[in-house]
Amino acid sequence: MSRRHIHRGTELMLYLDTLPKGGHAVIEKIEQRAPLDPIATRLGELGFVPGEAVQVVATGPVGRDPIAVRLGTSRFALRRGEAARVGLRAVS
Amino acid sequence: MSSTASAQTPASNLHIALVGNPNCGKTSLFNQLTGSRQKVANYAGVTVERKEGFFTTPNGRAIRVLDLPGAYSLDSTSPDEDVTRDVCLGRHPSEPQPQMLVAIISATNLRLHLRFLLELKQLGLPVIVALNMMDEARRNGLKIDVAGLQADLGMSIVPVVSLNRAGVIPLLQALDLPLPPPPAPLPAEIDPHMEVRRLLAAYVIDPSTGKDRLTDRLDRIFLHPVWGPVILLVVLFVMFQTVFAWAQPLMDGLDSGISTFGQIVLKPLPDGILHSLLADGVIAGAGTVIVFLPQILILFLWILALEESGYLPRAAFLLDRLMALAGLSGRSFIPLLSSFACAIPGIMAARTIQNPRDRLVTILIAPLMTCSARLPVYTLLIGAFVPHRTVLGIFGLQGLVLFGLYAVAIVSGVIAARVMTRGVKSEEHPLLLELPPYRRPNLKSLALGLWQRAVMFLSRVGTIIVSLNVLLWALSSFPLPPAGAPGAAIDYSLAGRIGHLMQWVFAPIGFNWQICVSLIPGLAAREVAVSALATVYAIGATDDGAADKLLPLLSTQWSMATAFSLLAWYVYAPQCISTLAVMRRETGSIKTVLWAAAYLFGLAYLAAFLTYHITRAITGVP
């Protein structure tokens, strides 16, 4: 998957699927792919909500897909398409 | 309601349900509470496992407890979670609403589990919170102000350790108290995530900031892009080595034990119909069931241990891409791989797939993974018809053909899965899999899990397989041939007649009546077709040399097209009644079984038809 950086005004929006392995970030928002997107809803229920810190702990062996993410005390495996819904605010 | 429960005074009976996130230790808590007093079945109409148990509190209160499927939310995304939501809300068609919930949350994963707990407050049911894995939390340096949290939540919290009996005593004592009032629901204007953050900030001190040293260190190895797959391969190799190597002596032992048993028991009986029924129908039928047991138990021991240790979700992570090719997720891999040994444990292993659609598709394509029972048939036909020649200097042609048969089956399975997963909505197929912390598997849970599998297999599947075997025996034995009649007895039986009739259907794919007749007893187990062929060709099937004697006979009597057509048939055909029986048991739906049989039959017929005519065209035989 290509790296997606979307410009909003002057700010650069980074998404969880492009965060490199070991990278930390804070969630900015969860994007709905469709009205009532069930995956976006489920991400929220799993704790992917704005303000939470995430870290990519591993990437899959083929095409770096899926990715393993630590969110607080939990770890989740996400396919890239799922991770692409999670908009991040980069932390230096 | 069990008889033990109804013997108590009505006031002391209590019907509760265990609710919690996946990986909160719910199942091990359930096992500690109920021990072996469990009933495992499916919820009506869905492939969701229903577990119910019974226990008595120290003061003698009889409790019936339902272990609801793990859920992240009442806003369900799967039939598993549908069950949990419907039972909690009292909407389930066949389950009454429980009188109280025991909500299990893990102290090591409060952020996730507290959110679901807040959702449970909306139900208006009394709730006791079992705060599990306190030992682990303490080791990680976590400090929880239980009293403060309890007062704030308005629900009583009982710290438990679900790994041992002593660890659940506080919960048993809490269940002796009068039911607490239902907690007040969270006001609608409060965001549950914010509420969780507030609770954590107020009552929990976590110095580890989410790091779990052991899990992080192991994940660096097990999820490593290079070492991860290597370790997985080694694990799978050892696993299947033990399934084959450890199970084989046990299976051989059981096999000869059963036949010796049969001989001893049936010795006083004169030869005749009753003897034949008991020996060839009942004992042989029960034998085919029991012989599977070592393989099933060893496979399940591995699967349960890998699941409990937390490794299985990691394997799913590593294999996700591969399985995505078939429209499935990594979880389907182990059931499918097991099906190469035998589809029966494979289909049973599909229980570990949470997504019901994935589970169904995995069950439906499991028979396409070439099971070991097909090998005798493949070996016989390849030996008879494929010349013993080397290709490109190093490969044996016979080996290549065998490899080709396996490859064709796998590719067909992938295509079939793709077709089946495509039609169902165009929605994205989510992975979203939790990777729980690594844990040492609990022996009691493993033993209980194995015991349940064994009982389930022997009682439910066993009865179907034995009755079908008796039916097949009757078909192949009656009516008896007239005295002094030439040829094989089976030729005069109902099966023989059906075989002759079947030829009308099978002639277009090149099957002669002998093949058709042997297909019928082959329904009991695929490899039986070889001995049945020997019977039909009047060689005498009982001795081990049947295949050796058949080989030259077949190579002169059959055309190459017929032989290849039969091989193609065997790649697909729903030949094994036991597989269909276990499918029926696991999906609870006869419609699914009929559908599976129909699609496999269609594929088999098509493949055999094409093979037959293409081979005829190439070999130039009319």
Automatic annotation (TrEMBL), chain B:
Transmembrane segments: 226-247, 277-304, 360-386, 392-417, 454-475, 558-581, 593-614
Native species: Gluconobacter vitians
SUPFAM superfamilies, A to Z: P-loop containing nucleoside triphosphate hydrolases (SSF52540)
Keywords: Membrane, Transmembrane, Transmembrane helix
Pfam families xrefs: FeoB_C (PF07664), FeoB_N (PF02421), Gate (PF07670)
Top-level taxon: Bacteria
The keyword Ion transport is assigned to this record: no
InterPro entries membership: Fe2_transport_prot_B_C, FeoB_GTPase, G_FEOB_dom, Gate_dom, GTP-bd, P-loop_NTPase
Domain FeoB-type G intervals: 13-181
UniProt-recorded name of the protein: Ferrous iron transport protein B
